[in-house]
Every structure is written in C-alpha cells, then in structure tokens.
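Entry 12.
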Amino acid sequence: MGKKEDLIDKLNPILDNQEELEKFLVDNSNLPGPRSNLELAFALSETYNNLEVLLEWTKITEDKADVNDPKSFLAFCSALCFGRIYTKTKDKKLIVCLKQLANDGRWRMREAVAFAFQFIGENDFEELRNIFSQWIHQSNNFEKRAILASLAHPRFLNEQTTEFCFEISEIVLNGMDLNNNFDALRKGLAFTISVFVAANPDSGFPFMEQWIGKNKVIDKIIKENLKKNRLVKKYPKQVENLFNMI
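Predicted 3D structure (tokens):
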C-alpha cells in the first residue's frame, strides 16, 4: 500500500459499501504477520465515521478472531476511528467503548486503544487529562496500562503535560495489583516512565529516584526504564547514578 493520501483515495469510493470496505480492509490487513497495516488503519480513521458499522466490528471478539486473524483488523480499526470521532463529537459513549476495548486479550487491540486516546490528546490534552483523571482511581491493570501507553506519546509531551504523567505513574506504582493481568501493566511501566522522563528530565530523574528501594518489583521497573536508549544516550550520567542506587 502507498502513502496515506493514496490509501484515502482508495477508501473513499467504498466507504458506503460495507461489504466491499470490509473485504478491502481484511485483504490488506497484513495479517497474519508481525505488523498489521497501521497506515491503512490510520487512513480509515480520518475518513470513516459510521458508528453502526464500527460498533458491529467491535463484536469481532478474540474468540471469533485471534490477534493474527485478518478479521481482527476490523475491530482494530474501530478503536482508532472511535478516537478520531470523539475529537469531533465528544460523545462519551465512545470513551465507554474504548475502556471496554482496553480489556481485550489481544495485544493489538490494546495498542489500538492507545492510538485512539493519542488522537484525543493531540487534539486536546486537557480533554485527555479529564478522561484519565476520572478513570485512574477505578481501573484494572489493563486499563492502567492503556492510560500509561496512551500518555507515552512524545507529540504532546512537554514540561507541563509530563507533570500529569508523573502523577498518573505515582498513582499506579502506589496501588499495584500484582495479580489480574499484572504482566501487561508491568511491561507498560517498563517503558512508559522513560518516555516521560525523556520529555522532562528535570522532574523525571528525581521522580525515578524517589521510587528506588521501595520494593523489588518497582526496582526492576526502574531498571528497565534506565536501559532505554532514549535515556542512556542522552543522559548517561544521570542513568549511571540511578543504576548505582539500585
């Protein structure tokens, strides 16, 4: 497939034909395979807003199409479209749908949810802050992972927005549930904190330092973040100092 504009040109004539649209998306999903066709999904999210069809696609659950089944690409696309549509409509039902999809057992679906919220954050970070501020205190590990992954988006990270990211990270670290899909949350924590720190090192490195020695699980999470090239290459001294404390 070609550039986004070319993909949009191919999508536009078939947007009103559900059968043809679904066939085009499935046939060009790049699944099964290591990487789904993100370019196509992003192009669709800019052009498609038929909620009836999108909600129908969310019913293609894991038991009907696993993570490598081409049909699962339709559900993946629905999440991205929800994010784009929300930026225009502020329809809270879409946030409810995204929260449900954040609990999907397929890792690609969970990534699609993060992409959707990143669209919202790029459009209006305060809106994203409000959504996640309501979520965070009554969220499970999959949902916490979705919040962290969504926020780990350099396009909207700066000194101001990262302060909220550190607040969220603190809430998550303070209340970790080591059961119930904790591995997904742990993997999220193992890279997202380094993204926040890279965007705001003056606040980020002290944030990491304060968590060292709290417990073995958190120490491992901090170590994993300190290994990321985004920190190692740019801030070697700070990284070395924190490693020596663990």
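Annotation: The first helix runs from residue 4 to 11. The mean pLDDT is 96.
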